[in-house]
Each structure stands twice: as C-alpha cells, then as structure tokens.
Write a structure and sequence with these properties.
The chain has 480 residues and is an alpha/beta fold. The chain has two domains: 349 residues, Alpha-Beta Barrel (TIM Barrel); 104 residues, Golgi alpha-mannosidase II (Immunoglobulin-like), CATH 2.60.40. 20% of the residues lie in helices and 28% in strands. The chain is built from eight helices and 24 strands. The strands form six sheets. An eight-stranded parallel beta sheet has the order 4-13-12-11-10-9-8-5.
C-alpha cells in the first residue's frame, strides 16, 4: 500500500491585510520568517534577475508560473546594473535587454548616446515608468504570495558590464562616474557616485514602503569587483533611517560569500545572510549562532541536470537554512512560463520537473512545525558510502526529517560518488524517546511518499533499513 501526501498550499494568503507588517524574522525561531501571520521559509526557482529592468519580460506570466509551481520567492535587480548578451555564456539572458528595452530608476535625458540604445541618463531625475513597473511587479508578486528580493547593486565583473551602467560617465549627463569599475562601490573613490547611490536607495525605500512581501539585498556578490565592506555597511545605514522616516521596516540581506564563510562583526540591521553555491551547506552550521536567516540564493555551475540543484535545496534546508533560490535559466523573455530549452553550455539548469521537485520539498517542510525544529545530525548515525551525507532537522520527541544524499553533483574535486544504493545496504540508527511513532520514506526525485509504517519504541535508538534509492532519499518520523 502506498500513502500519498495531499497537496498543500504555501500557507500564505494572496493579499496582505491593510496595515500588516512586512516580512519579518519569526519571533520563536529567527532562522525562519514570519509572513502574513504565519511561519514561512522561502523556496523558489527564479529567473536571472531581469524581470523589471527588461521591458520585454512578461512578469505576470512569470509570477503565475511560480505560483502554479508552488514557489514563493524571486530575486530582481534594481537597474543600476545590467549585462551584455555574451555575459557568462548565458543564452537569452534576462539581465541583458535588447537595444532600447532597458529601464532603470533614472530618467533619460534629451542627449543621445546610451550604448544600448536611446538617450543618456540624468542621475538627478527619476523615471516614473520604471517605478510604476517596479511597484506593479511587487504588487502582483504579493497577490500570489511571492516574496521579492530587491537587489540594489551588483559589482561590475568585467568592463562590458560597466560600459552599460547608467552610473558610468559615458552614459549620463551629470559628469559623474568617470572612474574604474572597481571604485564604484567605495566610500572614497566613487567619483561622485556615492551620493547618487544613496539617493537611489532612499527613493526605492520610499516608493516601496507599502509592500509587505519584500526585502532588500545590499549588493550581489560584493566579494568581486572592488566592493568594500565599509560601503556595504554604509548602504545598510542609509536604508534604516529612510525606512524609519516612512514608518516601515523591511528586512535587509547581505550576500556574504560563495560556498561558505563565517560571518564576523555583522551589521545589526542585517537579518538575512545569503550565500551562493552553498553545497555542502556547512555555512549554515557556521552561522547558525547568529540567530538570523541563512540563505542560499543562487545556484549554478554544476551542469544542467536537475539532480545537483534538487539535492542542494534539500541539503541546505534540512541543515537549517531558511531561504533557497535556484537560478532557473528556463525563464526567458518569450518563455516566461519556464519552457525555454537552454543549450548544454548554460552555466546552470532549471526545468518544470525541477520546480515540481522543489514544490514537493516545500510541501514536505510546510507540513511540519518547522519553526520548532532545529538541525541536529548527532541524533542519527549510519555507515555511509564515500561522498554521502545524512542530515537531521528535528523537534526531538515530536518530529524528525532525515535527508540522505549521495555525493553526485558535489564539487569537482570530491571523491567519485556512489549514486545508487540497494535495499538494506544502508541502515540508519535514530535516537528516539519511548513512545509510538510513524515513519515514511520520501522520494525527492519522483515526489512520491512511500509506504507508511508504525512502530513502538522503548529506549535507545531505532534502526531503519534504507530502501533502494538513486541520488537521494528522505525519511519523516513523527510521534503518534
């Protein structure tokens, strides 16, 4: 007999009540969120950040797709940065608008000469059409229970990105920004751009004060391109008083590192610490003591298959993370339903099947009282094949979620992993108190719960024989 979990909603109402508080850290467990009165974590598979700044992108279709796939987050760029079409070998890059199809906070001047079509920008004037589009994007996301990460800035990795920025002196009429790309995000070498950046942040905060489904990330990957820590802290210091003046409080995110790092001397106003390519998820344990949300908000560079990114999501969230965003290249202009078939050379993946697997993970976690669960892999032990890991998220005595994965999709220099295990080849010993329990194996790949069993336990550990699986498998144990 097989037992199937009924579908679950995301646990988020489609519209916020008037005067409702914005997304916040959960008061009982700040490793997770409180959103519209309910515990929340963010799990999604979103486009490459150009939904607002690219006028050819149909964000309504995109948001409908995310909602239909049971996902509840998206990242988007402010428009201070965009990319040329050949950046990072990304086909149909949404951050690379076609000629004349780029929109940003600053208004166009009457002077021709922007490199990617149209007039240059006036950094002293705002573009009402941009703010109308941005606010509608956030509004429409909120109607669908989707949280928006608005990323304010991004380093200029190469000259091609800097040549397209409105802050570059060649693209504005304000005689500012005649500097090297590595000096843009500094306090003392920005060539007049610091005041421009401060003004843009205050304007965005003011315009978006009425939305509850929003948080701000200071800068994407500030560990590249000369971005200084002092500048990042300064931008946080600009956001906070601007929000106090408007009577609202949105969470602030800081992108810390690729893979892992120990956060030291955190800014007191930062509530989300985001990492990229955080697999294995050691960075969660490193920073769990901060009592803030630890997120993995960009994936990629491990092929185009689904398995590495599905496993990264399960691994990260069972390790105690509160936010996961897969970078999904199947969303492009003209394919906002996530149907784009990208080339094998793409630096990442994203498919409808992968989004269904994320939905299954989302449903599994939201079925649990995850706010009262904490990572504790010491509760279980197993003799694992090379490269495999076992993680436990638990409220001891009440509920345990175990995730067992092989080493497939890990770093290139990892040992050659075993990807398949036969029934009984692995057994797991789980420390349990006396009582009656149910146990159910879950297949993250097929999105199927397997047979449910019930048992009585007296003392010590209970042994579970792991059924045959490929790549990964999960076990949910509950007190009856």
């Amino acid at each position: 007999m097989r037992y199937f979990l009924p579908p679950l909603a995301l646990g988020l109402s489609l519209t916020a009540a008037a005067g409702a508080s914005a997304l916040a850290l959960h008061p009982d467990n700040p490793h997770y969120f409180l959103f519209r009165g309910k515990p929340a974590l963010i799990l999604t598979s979103g486009e490459h950040y150009g939904a607002v700044l690219n006028l050819d992108f149909d964000y309504l279709k995109y948001l409908d797709t995310l909602k239909g796939d049971g996902l509840n987050g998206t990242r988007t760029w402010s428009g201070a940065y965009c990319e040329p079409p050949d950046a990072f070998n990304i086909a149909s890059n949404t951050l690379a608008p076609l000629k004349g199809r780029f929109i940003c906070p600053w208004a166009r001047s009457e002077q021709a000469g922007y490199l990617n079509g149209g007039n240059k920008f006036d950094l002293n004037q705002w573009d009402p059409a941009y703010f109308k589009r941005l606010k509608d994007f956030v509004k429409q996301a909120g109607k669908r229970g989707i949280v928006v990460e608005l990323n304010l800035f991004c380093p200029f990795y190469e000259e091609g990105m800097w040549r397209l920025s409105p802050m570059n002196a060649v693209n504005n009429v304000n005689n500012v920004g005649s500097i090297a790309r590595t000096n843009v995000y500094t306090l003392d070498k920005s060539g007049g751009l610091l005041a421009v950046q401060e003004s843009m942040v205050r304007k965005l905060v003011t315009e978006l004060k009425g939305f509850d489904n929003l948080y701000y990330e200071i800068c994407n990957e500030p560990y590249f391109g000369g971005v200084t820590l002092e500048w990042q802290r300064h931008i946080a210091d600009v956001i906070t008083p601007a929000e106090l003046k408007s009577g609202v409080r949105h969470l602030i995110s800081q992108n810390i590192a690729n893979e892992k790092a120990l956060v030291q001397n955190p800014h007191p106003q930062v509530s989300i610490f985001n990492f990229h390519y955080a697999t294995p998820p050691e960075t969660v344990a490193l920073n769990y003591g901060l009592n803030k949300v630890v997120g993995d908000n960009e994936t990629g560079f491990r092929g185009t298959n689904d398995a590495p990114y599905r496993m990264e999501a399960w691994d990260f969230l069972v390790a105690g993370g509160g936010l996961f965003n897969n970078l999904d290249y199947s969303f492009t202009s003209g394919h906002e339903d996530g149907s784009y078939i990208f080339p094998a050379s793409q630096p990442g993946g994203g498919t409808a099947q992968l989004r269904r697997q994320f939905q299954f993970l989302s449903q599994t976690l939201r079925r649990l009282d995850f706010v009262h669960m904490h990572p504790d892999s010491s509760l279980a032990k197993a003799d694992l094949p090379s490269g495999a890991t076992l993680r436990v998220l638990a409220n001891p005595g009440a509920v345990y979620l175990l995730y067992l994965r092989t080493g497939i999709g890990r770093a290139k220099d990892a040992p050659e992993p075993k990807t398949h295990c036969d029934t009984g080849e692995i057994s797991i010993e789980l420390a349990l108190p006396q009582g009656k329990f149910s146990a159910q194996w879950l297949n993250p790949k097929t999105c199927c719960p397997l047979e449910l069993s019930r048992f009585a336990h007296s003392v010590g550990t209970h042994t579970f024989a792991v059924p045959a699986f490929a790549d990964d498998i999960a076990l949910l144990v509950r007190a009856e």
